[in-house]
Amino acid sequence: MITYLAGASPLHRVNPAMKLLGLAVIAAAATLAFDPYIPAILAAGLWLMTLFFGRVPLRILMRWSIRLLLLPLPLALLTALYAQVGPQGHPILHVGPWILTREGVVLGLGVGLRLIAILAGSMMYVTTTDPSDFAVSLVQNLGLPYRFAYGILISYRFLPSLGSEAETLRMAHRVRGLGRSRSLGDRLGEFRRLAIPLLAAAIRRSERTALAMDARAFGAFAGRTYLRSMKVRGRDLAFVTLCAAYAFAAIALAVRLGVARLTWIPGA
What average pLDDT does the structure give for the chain? Predict the structure, then answer.
């Protein structure tokens, strides 16, 4: 699971709220394009930013990137198979009742790469943003009520703990002779064995958190004090500006090369 990696890189020092705003600009640019070129350029730039400016180790970044590349595959494949391109389409392959066309492949690649660009931005954000700073910046810089920000912080920290609990359960099952297998049936059985204990652990953890919040009168006051102040500095505004400039440059390059498409039918 992708987690925060503590460090002192340039991306670590950017205000979380401004970092979120800059990545939102890039994500918006990726979603506007229906061709695969613009989101591919944006995703590659985000990956390189995470590597060089976030100083995430290459080995870890490659392991996480391979998993992220697999997520959009079903969506891209279904989009390519079910794309309705009309009589102007160029068939490539007949797969049962489906006709795979060249236009459908381009459209499927565009949809998949758009999702990859958004996932690449999410990976950069998660690995270089401290969860506590993220919650505080939502309140101080974006004006979100602190009760909602605290809920987001709990969810942010809750998911990695579920992963560690799942690994503990797997080790307990392995001690009892239930080893991990590569077959699909055994994997489904392992999922069934893990689902109920993880659900019970999640309920217990949420109940303990709710009791702790009630004991400390959380939410009883309109405002609260903070240990740290999250300020917006010049480097934060520069990051947003660079993200906007990079998104504009990617679109301008695709338009210059004649490969940019803003319609849903490739080649239209």
Answer: 81
